[in-house]
């Protein structure tokens, strides 16, 4: 099986290929409508075949879009992480466009050589290539490629800002009609956050918070978690029941986040004078999931499980532990886990008492 982070990366790459594939088909059909039964391009005199174009152009576009998406998701996106939304799209569009023009030039030389049945170094192949690249037809293609690239990046940025899979769920209408599902929730809260903010100032505290959330993100993705929302210094993580139980993902995610912060401890101390820590509460239950809002739509969860999880997390200070897990969830998880029962306890706003567990260090 693919690792959760790998699956997440693939799901982010696929839209690039699909967007380029769709735009290439539209372009090919428009070109056919304009050229009709012509067998060569009027601007350059290069051979034209609709059959060849409709087969080759979408295939090349799909491959190019997928390669662009792979570079974007695995590498280039990280270089522009500090830029604004608009700057990211503009800068990366121009960068990708420069790379694409280079490859387009190479492909055009090859295509001309094949079409003319001559060497790629022949004068005719290069003359026809230059004729194309100096024509209005070429620059119309460049503008179209820029549009495809911009739309791809816009989709990726909006999807990233909305959250994992949220934009896709809007498009598919998955939660347009509310559905009931069973989920695991983990509420994480930074320890001594108010003190940190007062000591370092709110601007510097915000900078630390941004790095803190960034360091927590990778472990969440590695363990199939979905970031539901950020509330101040708190982050709410959710799993579909199967994903959260698989390999004890919900618990191992918590432990992996602890390790991630520990590895960055020296950097936090150097830059902010403190090393952030957190506490968390986990619970499982049914929620109703659906779209809500008019001028600002969101996909939200509603159900008692969210309030209960928040209350469980709030008891971490009472028991002086970093993690608390409800009995219903603890029973579903797979051994081995070094559980320690903390007894039955009432939760504010809840009549029914709940047995809580923590995990002792081995």
- Stretches where pLDDT is under 50 for at least 5 consecutive residues are none
The total beta strand count reads 8
Strand content: 15-25%
Helix residue percentage: 55-70%
User: Helix/strand-derived class?
Assistant: alpha+beta
Number of helices: 14
What number of domains?
2
Q: Mean of residue pLDDT?
A: 86
Q: Oligomeric state of the chains?
A: single chain
What name goes with the CATH superfamily of the largest domain?
Nucleotide cyclase, GGDEF domain
Query: Which fold name corresponds to the CATH topology of the largest domain?
Result: Alpha-Beta Plaits
InterPro entries: A/G_cyclase (IPR001054), Adenylyl/Guanylyl_Cyclase_3/4 (IPR050697), Nucleotide_cyclase (IPR029787)
Protein name: Adenylate/guanylate cyclase domain-containing protein
Keywords: Membrane, Transmembrane, Transmembrane helix
Domain Guanylate cyclase: 184-313
